[in-house]
Amino acid sequence: MSNPWRHVLNKERIVFDARVKSILRSGVPKTLSLELKAHETFLKATVDAKAIGEEAWQQVQKLTLESIVRVTGVLRLCGDEVVTNGTNCINGTNGINGTNGINGTNGDGIGLSSPNGTASDTTYAVDVSEMAVVAQASPDIDSFRGEGPSRLGLEERLNNRILDVRNAAAGAIFKLHSGMCQLMVEFLCSNGFTWIHTPRIITATIAGDNEFFHLPYFGRNAWLAQSTQHHKQMALSMDMERVFEIGPVFRAEVKSQASARHLTEFTVLDIGMAFQDHYHEVLEMIESMLVFVFRGLQERQQYSGLIEIVKELYPSARPFRIGLDKDGKVPHITFLEAKRILREELGYAADDADKISDQEEAVLGRHFRASVHLGQTDIFTIDQYPASMRQFNSVPNPDAPGFSNAWDTIVGGREICSGSQRMNSYDEVREAMRAGVCGPPLDPEADEWQAYLTAFKTGMPRHGGCGLGVNRLLQTFLGLDDIREVTLFPRDVNRLAP
């Protein structure tokens, strides 16, 4: 239902489909009060047998919660009156399963507050002249009526995902997920990127990596892709220059059994970009995209109202801070500087020879958020990682032996984006494969690598790229505790349904 105010002001007779959220049989013979949800608008419906006719009345009397009805009637405001099920009138906005509404927007981005744009105590009601049952819900389904996400266990909610996402707060999360992807596409396409689609069934894997899902493939061996990096590089060699892809990848993460940040299937934004002078051209493009996305979510009306709904019902949700340096860019520190801060400023025994742990990322995230000197920001980048901690094809830093032109971008105290300058020389890639700097040696003569190496043999531009976890990005932006909150149908060691 787009722009209910227009229908109220024009006193129009309208027809719409709605879901039944509560039913109250009044003391007045042959009348019924319903609370309905049409898109993101909650409204009260008064049904009178005389108005709708005896045949329709017989159907309406059998209504169950979560059923869908087609309503014909005139929309009006019900003022401060109390809905007959005992809850307060919903404020015409994204209602929260019978609790007080929150001023926001509907699914069409139309403001649902009063006509002058201020908060309103009024809500919508419809005087029903016709009603038909479109879909009758079973009377024995579980109901989350009146239960917000904070009152129910996540496993219970995931087991009843359909009903769970009908809750306004859970539903708002997935509208924000859609909005985040739309903003990514908007930014990248406006900056000359080509949206590509690459296969998830692959033949080349890294020996010793046990996190690939094996896939028997018509008598041959295949695997599900953990990333699209190799095909993305092949596309760059086709002179596409700037490419991206949003889609699922797969990783046999045993730790997803008990982790709040890992899944076995998740959505990744993969970006590849040729550059002219320095790999920071790629890094700064990606950081600019992230700032664009975060500001778009915070400032565009169709998303900001959804964020408020999430914050209302999720205790861990908190405002996201974008702090930029004096040049208007995302703050950078090197890997060694991050280790120094951990040791000298935060009191952690952080060894330069060790990877930055999940706990250390979280500590650095809190430090950057609190520190005025560092920008009080929830986003920053750690650059110049040791070559031994990166993929074989990351370019070493010629001025700092043992380090590579590779980075992690940290959002909300969690790594959400790993990237690097990739080698573009055919001979250097083959040599790096044999050397096995960050893993077991690879055989560049093996059949499964020939298609990939052809991209270099035929001339590859200088380039860099990254993989960015979309689910984790939204989780950290909203400040939620578990990545499964932002995954519509999560998959982990324990979960294969729904």
Which key features would you list for this structure?
five-stranded mixed beta barrel; eight-stranded mixed β-sheet; 14 helices; 498 residues; alpha+beta
Structure description:
There is one protein chain. The protein has 498 residues and is α+β, with helices and mostly antiparallel strands. It contains 14 helices and 16 strands. The protein has helices at 4-10, 49-52, 54-60, 154-159, 161-166, 168-190, 229-240, 280-299, 301-313, 335-345, 358-370, 426-435, 450-457, 470-478; strands at residues 13-25, 31-38, 41-48, 68-77, 124-135, 194-195, 201-202, 214-217, 220-224, 242-250, 265-274, 332-334, 379-383, 406-411, 414-422, 463-469. The strands form three sheets. It has an eight-stranded mixed sheet with strand order 6-10-11-16-15-14-13-12. α6 packs across α8 (280-299). The longest helix has 23 residues, at 168-190. The protein is elongated and about 85 Å long. Residues 80-122 have low confidence and may be disordered.
